[in-house]
Write a structure and sequence with these properties.
Layout lengths: L7 E2 L2 E2 L2 E2 L7 E5 L6 E6 L3 H16 L7 H17 L1 H12 L3 H25 L4 E5 L5 E10 L2 E5 L5 H14 L3 E5 L6 H12 L7 E3 L8 H6 L6 E5 L2 H11 L6 E4 L4 E5 L5 H13 L9 E7 L3 H13 L19 H16 L3 E4 L19 E4 L16 E7 L2 H9 L6 E5 L3 H10 L4 E4 L18 E2 L4 H7 L1 E9 L1
Helix pairs in contact: 2-4, 3-4, 3-6, 4-5, 9-10
Length: 491
C-alpha cells in the first residue's frame, strides 16, 4: 500500500488510498526551490462524507469499545514503525516545508514518536473520578464517571509543524477510542498521508484514521466542520480561521479545541546571563524561520542592557545559516510559500513606515540560482518601535522581532500583556523570585522562565484571548477527547 503512486498524494478513506481524480489536483510545492513536487487530490464533498461515514462505522464496529490496553499497544507500534521509517518521514516533512534536515529529524519527526508514546502512557494510566454523596437517613450514593470517546473527531492542522501538530492531536484522540478525519494544510499534505500507511501497517482498523486533502472555505476544511456527522473539532491555525470555524460548528453545538495564533513576548531583565539569554532568544525568535506559534515577536529588554542585547541578537541572527535544507549545517529554511513571504514583507514595509531602525535583515537573501524561486527571507530585527505600532500588534509568523526597552518590572509586565493574543511568554532573569512572579502574571497559557519551547506533554497547553479555547496535553487531552457519563448509585 502506498500513498504517492504516480506523483499523486492521495486521500485515505476507510483504510484505502482513493484513486485520484485528475480534474481535482493541486500542486505540492517545495518552498525551498519553488518546484512542483507532486499533485494532491483535493477531496470533494462526497469523499469527505465517505470519510466521516467510515469513521462512524469504525466506531460502531468496535473501535470505541476496544480495551485501552489494545489501543495503547497500537499507538506504541505506530511509534516503532515511524522510527523504522524515520528517514521517509524526514524526507516527506522536508518536501512539505523546506525545513532543514536537522530540524525535521530532531524536532518534527522525533516529536511524532514521542506524541504516540506519551499519549499511550497517559491513556494507560488514566483513572476515573468518583465521589460519595450523603443521602437522607444516613445512606450514601456512589458517583463515578465513565469516560466514553467523543466520537468522530475532525482534526484540522496548519503547515508550520505539520507532523508534530497532527500527531499531538491524533495520538490522544485514538488513545481515547475516537475515529478521526484529518485535514492537513493544503501546503503540507505529505506526512499525514504517510502516517496513513504506517497506521494501516500496524493494524489500525479501517475508518479509524482518514485523511482528506484540500483547502478551507468551500473545500475539505469547511465540508468537514459543517458535516453533521462530526462530534467535535480540534483545530490548530490562525485566530481568524478559528473564529470562522467556531461559527460553522456552532449550529450543531459541538465541542471545539482551538490552538490559535500568538504575538508572544520575551522579557529580559538586567540580571541575566547575557550569553544564555541570547541563545534562548535566538531560538525563540528564529526557530522554524519564526513559523512557530510560540515564537517571540516582541522582546522587552531592560534599558541598562538594551544595546548589548540588541547587538548580541543581531550578531546571532547574522550567524544563522540559510541554504540547502539537506545540508547538516543549515539552520534556517524558507517561509512556507511565496504568498506567506508577501505577507511577511508587507510587515517589513509597515515597520519602515513606522520609522523602525532595521538592526539586521529586512529583505530577501540571494542564495544562488538553485534556491532563487524559493520563499526565502532574511532574519530581521527592529528597534525604535513601540507597542502602538501595527507590527507589534498583529502576528507576523516570520523570522522577525522588535526590541523595546523598559525601566521597571511593572512596565515590562504591562507591555507584555498589552495584546489581544495570549499564547506564550518567556522571562529571562537570574532572580528566582522575580522569575516566578512575572511568569505567573503573564496573561498567557504557557509561561517559560529561562527557557523556551521546553515541552512537557503531560502539562496543559493552549492559549487565552485570541490564542485559543481549551487546553490539550496530558489529562486535558483526555478530557477533550472523551465525554464523561456520571453514574450515581444509591448504596
Ligand atoms: P490557517 O488558519 O490558514 O489554516 C489552518 C488549517 O485550517 C489549514 O488546514 C486550512 O486549510 C484550514 N482552514 C482554513 N480555512 C478553513 C475553513 N474555513 N474551514 C475549515 N478549515 C479551514 O493557518 P495556517 O496559515 O495554516 O497556520 C498558521 C497559523 O497557525 C498561525 O496563526 C499560527 O500561530 C497558528 N498556529 C497555532 C498553534 C498553536 O498551538 N496555538 C500551532 C501552530 C500554528
Ligand atoms: O509542542 C506542542 O505540542 C505544540 N502544540 C506546539 C505548537 C507549536 C506551534 O506552532
Amino acid at each position: 500500500m502506498t500513498s504517492t503512486l504516480d506523483g499523486w498524494i492521495r486521500n485515505f478513506v476507510d483504510g484505502t488510498f482513493v484513486e485520484p481524480d485528475p480534474q481535482r489536483g493541486f500542486d505540492q510545492i517545495d518552498p525551498a526551490t519553488g518546484r512542483v513536487l507532486a499533485q494532491v487530490h483535493e477531496a470533494d464533498q462526497v469523499l469527505v462524507d465517505r470519510a466521516v461515514t467510515s469513521a462512524r462505522r469504525a466506531l460502531d464496529n468496535g473501535w470505541a469499545d476496544t480495551p485501552v490496553r489494545e489501543r495503547t499497544a497500537l499507538l506504541r507500534r505506530a511509534a516503532d514503525r515511524i522510527e523504522e521509517r524515520f528517514e521517509e518521514f524526514v524526507a516527506a516533512e522536508m518536501a512539505d516545508t523546506g525545513k532543514p534536515i536537522t530540524q525535521a529529524r530532531e524536532l518534527d519527526v522525533a516529536r511524532a514518536l514521542t506524541n504516540f508514546r506519551t499519549f499511550a502512557d497517559v491513556a494507560a494510566a488514566a483513572g476515573q473520578e468518583s465521589f460519595m454523596t450523603d443521602l437522607a437517613g444516613g445512606r450514601q450514593a456512589l458517583n463515578y464517571a465513565v469516560r466514553k470517546p467523543l466520537g468522530v473527531v475532525a482534526v484540522i492542522v496548519p503547515w508550520n509543524l505539520p507532523l508534530l501538530l497532527l500527531t499531538w492531536k491524533v495520538a490522544p484522540a485514538l488513545a481515547c477510542g475516537n475515529a478521526v478525519v484529518v485535514k492537513p494544510s493544503e501546503e503540507t499534505p505529505a506526512t499525514a498521508t504517510l502516517l496513513a500507511e504506517v497506521l494501516a501497517e500496524v493494524g489500525l482498523p479501517p475508518g479509524v484514521y482518514n485523511v482528506v486533502h484540500g483547502f478551507g472555505g468551500n473545500s475539505a476544511g469547511e465540508y468537514l466542520t459543517t458535516h453533521p456527522g462530526i462530534d467535535g473539532v480540534t483545530f490548530t491555525g490562525s485566530s481568524a480561521t478559528g473564529s470562522h470555524v467556531m461559527k460553522t460548528v456552532a449550529p450543531r453545538v459541538r465541542p471545539v479545541s482551538f490552538e490559535l495564533g500568538g504575538k508572544n513576548a520575551a522579557i529580559v531583565f538586567d540580571d541575566v546571563d547575557l550569553d544564555e539569554a541570547l541563545t534562548g532568544l535566538t531560538k525563540s525568535v528564529f526557530t522554524n524561520t519564526g513559523q512557530v506559534c510560540l515564537c517571540t515577536e516582541r522582546v522587552y529588554v531592560h534599558r541598562s542592557i538594551f544595546d548589548d542585547v540588541a547587538a548580541g541578537l543581531a550578531e546571532r541572527a547574522q550567524g544563522l545559516r540559510l541554504g540547502d535544507p539537506n545540508s547538516e549545517s543549515t539552520t534556517t529554511g524558507p517561509l512556507i510559500s511565496q504568498a506567506h513571504r508577501d505577507k511577511v514583507l508587507s510587515f517589513f514595509k509597515m515597520a519602515e513606515q513606522s520609522g523602525a531602525n532595521v538592526l539586521t535583515g529586512g529583505g530577501i537573501p540571494d542564495l544562488g540560482s538553485k534556491l532563487a524561486f524559493g520563499s526565502w527571507i532574511e532574519p530581521t530585527l527592529w528597534t525604535g518601535l513601540t507597542n502602538d505600532d501595527p507590527v507589534l500588534r498583529e502576528e507576523i509568523f516570520g523570522p522577525v522581532a522588535a526590541l523595546v526597552p523598559f525601566d521597571t518590572e511593572e512596565e515590562a509586565i504591562a507591555l507584555a500583556n498589552d495584546t489581544k493574543y495570549g499564547l506564550a511568554a518567556a522571562v529571562w532573569t537570574n532572580d528566582l523570585r522575580r522569575g516566578h512572579r512575572v511568569a505567573q502574571r503573564m496573561r498567557v497559557g504557557i509561561s517559560w522562565v529561562n527557557t523556551w519551547f521546553t515541552r512537557e506533554l503531560r502539562s496543559p497547553f493552549g492559549g487565552v484571548g485570541l490564542s485559543g479555547i481549551g487546553r490539550e496535553g496530558g489529562e486535558s487531552s483526555l478530557h477533550f477527547y472523551t465525554e464523561p457519563t456520571n453514574v450515581c448509585v444509591a448504596l
